[in-house]
Amino acid sequence: MEIIKGKKQPHVLAVPFPAQGHVKPLMKLSRQIAKRGIKVTFVNIQCIHEKIVANNKNMSGDNINHNEEDNIILASIPDGRSPEDDPNDTFKLLESLRHSTPGFVTELIEKINISNPDQKISCLVADITMAWIFETAEKMGAVPVAFSPPSAAAFALVLHTPKLLQQGFLDANGSVTKSETISLSENVPTWQKNELTWSFSGDLQTQKIFFDCSKRISETVNQATWLLSNTCYEIEPSACDLSPNLLSIGPLLESPNPKSPPISCNFYSEDESCLAWLDSKPPGSVVYVSFGSLAVFSQQQLDELAFGLENSGRAFLWVVRSDLANGSRAVYPDGFLDRVGEVGKVVEWAPQERVLSHTSTACFVSHCGWNSTMEGAGNGVPFLCWPYFSDQYHNQSYICDEWEIGLRIEPGENGIRTRDEIRGKIDKMFCDDRLKKNAVKMKEVCAESVGEGGSSYKNLEMFINHLVE
Ligand code: UDP
Asked: What's CA 365's distance to the chain center, in Å?
């Protein structure tokens, strides 16, 4: 990759929202920027910074860590909460971030600018959810850049909230009032009334907090000079067209570099033993099962999943986070691990992109978070969809109806996906060549877009070239 040499020495400050599915893609974007010889300071709130340092074997626990290869420096700021605040209260965190980050980011920029007079912060790339710091960027003389981790469709929905409210399609809580669905364009899948990004059926208070957050994003995101999105035009052209300022630069995928393992950004400890286990399996034989960082299940649902996998008779690699069972450690059905033996492998956290790019991986039982969606699509892996909340339902529509690279695992009337449904859909996946063929085509489309001369490649080049002007 050519290193850009300009008159100025640009320096990017990257500020993710403190959630796994937000930190990871912004780090991938930061790596793309750093690869062009531009310095990036990547700043997390303290507790996230500590998790990342703890899960990067080559790092010390210092406040600032250098990864010379990548040109990236990790830094941290306080999260603004007081010791008596509940550390698991996400809404409290959101509120305190809103009030405290502008001050902490200003202090950090001042500190960096004093110690690096030739390389002052020239650009601030922040997650759209942290949109309130674009003002800070301007005050500090840095170009404000918004980074949108979800699909262009999810972003368009957020951007359209004021209009949908004004036209009476949504009420003040974000509930759909006039119809069963919301549609923004003929060629973008519709949203079912309880499957909006902020929908929380049965919990109106939480829904309103998420909805207010979406409204705030729609009001503030235009303060940014650039708006970058982890998608590519070719896979959702109509949704991209709904936000004319959106620059698609994805899918952001990991490029393996054995010489210099990148900063991992994992909140959990990655278990690489599954890669050797995958090596021992025939090509296209393994069902990979992972629900991202937030989804949780009842014990009944976990039992059904365990039996569904066992009864399928297929090899499976299942990510069972330590908090997957409604915040606690999962309990397996009696004798499950002994019975599946070498046929099944359970890990707490997988090197997901290396699993998805492994030849033994056949399909991906996924909650359809947008990162997982992009990683599966970018690696040509078909999906068995099991959305949990938020934009995951809409991502499922893309996967199953638009791109035709997946099947739904349907819940029963009580909301539980039964062992028979799970086993049945796994069987169907292995019998349906069409899904795999479409998934391989999808991989080619993504590769073309991020490859030299492709639409995402050109958009990213345009953005990076402006950084050095
Ligand atoms: N991930 C991972 N190992 C795992 C499970 C997930 O590295 O075992 C990563 C995955 O590659 C993705 C992120 O965690 O980049 C999850 O983001 P996503 O948007 O899919 O879901 P969320 O966690 O936000 O629900």
From this structure: 16
